[in-house]
Amino acid sequence: MNLATAVVLFFVGRRLLGEFGGAIAASTFAVMSLDRWILGVFAHATHFVLLPTLLALLLLLRAVDTRRAAGFVGAGVLLGIAVLMKQQAIFLLLFGMAFALAGVQANEGKWAPALKHTALVAAGAVVVFAVLCGVLAQQGVLQRFWFWTFQYASAYVAEVPLSNAWSPLVFAWNVITRANLPIWSFGAFGAAILWLGRWSAQARLFITGLLLASFLAVCPGFYFRNHYFILLLPAAGLCAGEAQAGFGDVHPAGRVNGEAGREVQSVNDNGRLCQRLGHRNTASFKRLANADLVRAFVGDASRVQ
Questions:
Q1: Domain range enclosing 268
Q2: 156 and 139, same structural domain?
Q3: Do 210 and 285 fall into the same domain?
Q4: Alpha-carbon gap, residue 29 to 13, rounded angstroms
Q5: Are the C-beta atoms of residues 25 and 240 closer than 8 Å to each other?
Q6: What confidence category does residue 249 fall into, taking pLDDT thresholds of 50, 70 and 90?
Q7: How confident is the model over 144-149, as a mean pLDDT?
Q8: How far is CA 94 from CA 205, 216, 241, in A?
Q9: CA 207 to chain centre
Q10: Rounded to an integer, what distance in angstroms lies between the CA atom of residue 305 and that of residue 29?
């Protein structure tokens, strides 16, 4: 399960941060998910939240660009499955809906299509819940399901008041970082500099939103059990990937690479634009852009001997 999740996280990271950033994100997750202090090597329902969630978010990243209804519905179904695995995944479902709303609105410039596609995500999640309730009702156990899933769970998360949340959070943090504190710290560094680098608005909003939703998913009941923090690992991996991939924009020795990265992104973005507009000479466009790419690496080409 951890391996499959790492693979999906790579594809998510690649869309947001490029191949190098995606590889760092997936590698970071893979290492941290094996940490015994976070109970990553033991079977918990928490593991089964991440895979459908990341598959859903990958679908959403594509659907926001293509505006295909099936992508939004499919993402909703997968997020609904994640909520069925553990109730606190509701925060990840809400994040998916918020990302769909913001992403479509940014692309379309109108709220009506954004609300429509967000409703498709919600509908997909509702379908999953409705099907489950129908099956349980047919077998005569719906009332028992409702008790354990909602009534008992509501009482369980109300036991610890907010005023007592800090101490268990600090204790849990000290435990889960016992073996991987440098990695957690590097992820925190990535989160801190996310809005200072060259990243697109989509990447910034996605990583920030996922980090917030993941932390909220850890918090219900304020018990902060070790394996709850598994929900934070994909966001931590993306933050680490963003920090490492954006190194060229921060470190003086990497400024040339940072400039080149922006030029490559510009060429790729314009190439995709040509394809969307039906332009048949995309390859010629990229060849013409090579002069700008060379200048990004070596400056004025006339100075090259």
A1: 253-303
A2: yes
A3: no
A4: 11
A5: yes
A6: low
A7: 93
A8: 14, 11, 24
A9: 6
A10: 45
